[in-house]
Amino acid sequence: MEASRLISCREDVSSLFPDHTLGSKHEDLRSQFCSVRKVRGDGNCFYRAFCFAHLESLLHNARALDRFKDKVMQSANDLSRAGFDESSFKDHLNTLLDVVQQCQQADEEEATLLRLFNEQMTSDSMVQYLRLLTSAHLRNHADFFCNFVESPNLHAYCHQEVEAMAMECDHVDILALTQALDVTIHIGSLEGEDLVHHIIPEGAEPSMHLLYQTSHYDILYPHPQP
Questions:
Q1: What would you measure as the largest C-alpha separation in the chain, in angstroms?
Q2: Is there a contact between 46 and 176 (Cβ–Cβ < 8 Å)?
Q3: Residue 189 belongs to what H/E stretch?
Q4: Each residue of 121-168: pLDDT tens digit?
Q5: Which run of H or of E encompasses 140?
């Protein structure tokens, strides 16, 4: 049952790797993080993990949740400025706002958030909005981002690689989305011999922690501060 979910319940971080693969980087990961939520590897894992982890970090801060709702509502202007017709994003925007509102009104916020993110239509709609917002930010700041895109042009890249569901995200997309929502993210990577940490943007305090390995993202939870 758990394996079929879009986002899992929290599990011990050691569930990420079989015992026989334990190396120094896995020990480093286990020493810094206690648990993980696994995200389905369907090409949308970054956006789904990002959205869930950020909302989860805000659940017990009513003022921060209201600020996030305001930010999302204002982001509609960014999509319009980038040339998106309101009909292409209004339903997805409303889905995201409705999820926030349901969590605000719920007695068990985390359980409500997890339930909504495991409803395929609701979850995918939120992912689609973040994809459109990422594309809009790239387009609205084309002079900067065109330097990092290898496609024929930025417009083609956004249409083919960012807006389309199930397309894996690149570093430039992560940078654009964090800028668009003014969110700081920490990504731990197991790709090399050592556990490598990336803070985007650098020097800020992250609101979420994700793990990157084999083109996939899961959500990490640090050990509680003593």
A1: 52
A2: no
A3: strand 185-189
A4: 999 999 999 999 999 999 999 999 999 998 779 999 999 999 999 999
A5: helix 120-140
Question: Which string of DSSP letters, residue by residue, matches 33-70?
Answer: EEEEE-B--SS-HHHHHHHHHHHHHHTT-HHHHHHHHH
pTM of the model as a whole: 0.96
Q: Are strands 208-213 and 185-189 parallel, antiparallel or unpaired?
A: parallel
Active site residues: 42, 45, 197, 216
Domain ranges of the chain: 2-222
CA–CA distance, 137 with 132 (Å, rounded to integer): 9
2-222 CATH, one of 1.20.1300.20, 3.40.1180.10, 2.60.120.510, 3.55.40.20: 1.20.1300.20
Q: What is the pairing mode between strands 33-37 and 196-200?
A: unpaired
Token match 């894992």: residue? 45
